[in-house]
Design goal:
265 residues; Rossmann fold; 2 domains; five-stranded parallel β-sheet; 12 strands; phosphorelay response regulator activity
């Protein structure tokens, strides 16, 4: 998952560091104007912005972000969060308002929950044929056996899973998942998916989980995917996935190195 965050003070700098350590890709904005510019031209799973930005008021930023990303989770952060401020920000479209002193594990859990629910998944475990993706532990199993994945391979699987049956072009995948100053060649997506398919086959998968549309992109087989309570493919969830797919098509490069969680090499 890729998170866009305004890094304008020590508290948000710490949150950004903690999110990287928790396995998120993180894009950094240095003020409100840059935050809006990245949101307009990049592809993010969620946005965090601080109410105390040097160039724009919180209400102004939220209004601009919601106009650009109507279906993406947007969370505000603040040193203090009284009831009236929380009510006002959520009335204006924020998913929640997070205090700076909130435990990092709780912030990470909130973001994962908001992202998966916006994609139509009510629980973190998603099954598609032989494959089971755990969005919380960032792990994948085939027929109950864990897959050994690189960081990029897992992120490809997670991204396609969150988009359900929606087609994702190669440019879309590299735009969101490319965590370097220069995006990887789009042809490398085919290479990574080839390796993923080989690893799945070695664990006994016999069905094609990621069908390819020649010259168009990839998708996960939608008719097979289910969450633990069978609510994943609700009509609302499908609509949200389709809308979020069309919100943005390009990614702003992350300004810091991304760190893989310990179980992904």
């Amino acid at each position: 998952m890729r998170i866009l965050i305004s890094d304008t003070n020590w508290a948000t700098c710490t949150i950004a560091h903690d999110l990287r350590s928790a396995g998120f890709y993180v894009s950094i904005a240095n003020d409100g104007a840059e935050l809006i510019e990245i949101a307009r031209n990049g592809m993010q799973d969620a946005v965090l912005f601080d109410l105390d930005l040097p160039d724009m008021r919180g209400k102004e930023i939220l209004h601009s972000l919601r106009a650009i990303l109507p279906h993406t989770p947007i969370c505000a952060t603040a040193a203090q969060a009284d009831i009236e401020t929380q009510r006002m920000m959520m009335d204006l479209g924020a998913s929640t308002l997070i205090r700076h002193d909130t435990d990092p594990a709780v912030i990470a859990a909130q973001l994962r929950a908001y992202v998966r629910r916006s994609a139509g998944f009510s629980t973190p475990i998603v099954r598609t044929g032989h494959m089971e993706v755990n969005l919380t532990t960032q792990s994948v199993q085939i027929n109950g056996s864990p897959m050994q994945l690189t960081r990029f391979e897992y992120e490809v699987i997670e991204m396609l899973t969150l988009r359900g049956g929606s087609l994702s072009a190669r440019e879309t995948i590299t735009s969101q998942l490319g965590a370097w100053e220069e995006k990887p060649d789009t042809n490398m997506i085919d290479v990574h998916l080839g390796r993923i398919r080989s690893k799945m086959a070695a664990l006994g998968a016999t069905e094609e989980v990621f069908p390819t549309r020649v010259a168009r992109g990839f998708r996960i087989a939608p008719q097979e995917a289910t969450s633990m309570d069978a609510c994943s493919y609700s009509e609302k969830g499908a609509d949200n996935r389709a809308c979020r797919q069309g919100e943005t098509t390009h990614r702003h490069s992350s300004s810091a190195q991304d760190i893989a969680p310990p179980h992904i090499y």
